[in-house]
Amino acid sequence: MLSYLMLAVVGVVVGAVVLGLGLVLGKTSMADDEKVGPYECGFDTLSSARLPFSLRFFLLAVIFLIFDVEIVLLFPLVGVVGADVCLCGASFVSILVVGLFHEWREGSLDWG
């Protein structure tokens, strides 16, 4: 029982020492506002919440999520061999390609 208590005390002391060293020796320079700002959120988080949001940014994010989920759905087809699986995978990929070309032609993928 005493050894577990000693182990807990040593763990707390080592954790406190490491945390203290990190606070004392760590970099605290906030010279660049771009580095401490939000990453790729599309708008400034400190401004008013009533500002209009870019729908093109939202549409691109949704398209990315859709294609990301569809790629995950293709992973189980890798380990299976058979003509039916190949036909199913080829039709699924062809539907993805047709959807990609539709979004491209529509202009949803043009950010500029």
UniProtKB/TrEMBL annotation:
Compartment list: Membrane; Mitochondrion membrane
GO CC annotation, single: mitochondrial membrane
Protein's recorded name: NADH-ubiquinone oxidoreductase chain 3
UniProt key word Manganese: no
Family according to the record: Belongs to the complex I subunit 3 family.
PANTHER family (alphabetical): NADH-UBIQUINONE OXIDOREDUCTASE CHAIN 3
Catalytic EC class: translocase
Catalytic reactions of this protein: a ubiquinone + NADH + 5 H(+)(in) = a ubiquinol + NAD(+) + 4 H(+)(out)
Functional summary from the UniProt entry: Core subunit of the mitochondrial membrane respiratory chain NADH dehydrogenase (Complex I) which catalyzes electron transfer from NADH through the respiratory chain, using ubiquinone as an electron acceptor. Essential for the catalytic activity of complex I.
UniProt entry keywords in alphabetical sequence: Electron transport, Membrane, Mitochondrion, NAD, Respiratory chain, Translocase, Transmembrane, Transmembrane helix, Transport, Ubiquinone
Keyword Transport: yes
Lineage, top ranks: Eukaryota, Metazoa, Spiralia, Lophotrochozoa, Mollusca
EC annotation from Swiss-Prot or TrEMBL: 7.1.1.2
Transmembrane intervals: 6-25, 57-75, 81-101
A UniProt-annotated Pfam family: Oxidored_q4
Membrane topology: Multi-pass membrane protein
GO molecular function, one term: NADH dehydrogenase (ubiquinone) activity
